[in-house]
Amino acid sequence: MNFLEYLGSRHQQLLTDAYQHASVVFQCMVVATLIGVFVGVVTYRSEWAGNLATLTTSTILTIPSLAMIGLLIPVVGLGVPPTVIALTLYGLLPIVRNSIVGLRGVDPSLVDAATGIGMSRLSRLVRVEMPLAWPPILTGIRVSTQMLMGIAAIAAYASGPGLGNLIFRGIASLGSKNALNQVLAGTLGIIVLALLFDAVYVLIGRLTIPRGIRV
User: In this structure, are residues 147 and 94 in contact, taking their beta carbons and an 8 Å threshold?
Assistant: First the structure.
C-alpha cells in the first residue's frame, strides 16, 4: 500500500487525530497566553522580577519533553492531564519574554501623556501599553504555537491525543507494511497544522495591529 492509498483508507482516523492535535494545542495556547501575559504585566516594571520570570520559564523549557510527561504521569495519570500541563508550561517562555520586552519598549512619553490626561494605571495599561506591546506578544504566541505543535506529538507516550499516536505506532512497528506511512502521515499532518495556525496568526496580526505599528 503506497502513501496515497494509506491516506485514502485511513482518512477518517487521520482527521480525528488531526482535530485532537489541533484542539489540545489551541486550548493549551489559550491558557499559556493568559498566564504568560499576566506574568509579563506583573513583572515588566521590575528588572529583577522580569529576569526571574524569564529565568523560570527558560528553566522549564530545558526539561526534555519526554521526561516532563514521564514525571507527570505518576501525579496526574495518563491521557489528557499530563499533556495539557506539559504543553502549557512549555508554551510560557516566548509569551512571557515577549510580553516583558513589548511592555518595556513602549515609549515613556506616551505613557506620560496618558497620565497627564488623567488615565489610571489600569487604563494606561489596557488602552496604551498593551496595544503597543501587542505585536511582540503576538510573535511570542506564534513561536509558542509552533513549538507546541511538535512537542504535542510526544504526548502519545502518555496516551495523549493527537497525531503523535500515528508516529509512535509507526516507530513501534518498523518493518511492517504501513509503519513508514504512519510516521509520514503523522509528521506531515503536524507540519500542515503548524502552517495553518501560523496563517491564522498572520491574519489576526493584520486585523489587530494598526498599519502604522506594523510598519
Answer: yes
The label of the residue with cell 523560570 reads 56
Q: How far apart are CA 29 and CA 33, in angstroms?
A: 6
**C-alpha to C-alpha distance for 143 and 149, rounded to whole angstroms:** 10
What would the pLDDT profile of 127-145 be if each residue is shown by its tens digit? 889 999 999 999 999 999 9
* Close Cβ partners of 76 (under 8 Å, ≥ 6 residues apart): 82, 85
The dihedral built from the CA positions of residue 88, 90, 96 and 102, taken in this order, carries a sign that is negative
Residue 206 CB: number of other CB atoms within 10 A?
Answer: 10
What would the pLDDT profile of 143-169 be if each residue is shown by its tens digit? Answer: 999 999 999 998 888 888 889 988 988
Angle in degrees, 0-180, between the axes of helices 3-43 and 47-62, rounded to the nearest 10: 160
How many CA atoms are closer than 13 Å to the CA of 45, on its beta-carbon side?
A: 8
Can you read off the three cell numbers belonging to residue 26?
489551541
Q: Is-above-0.85 flag for pTM?
A: yes
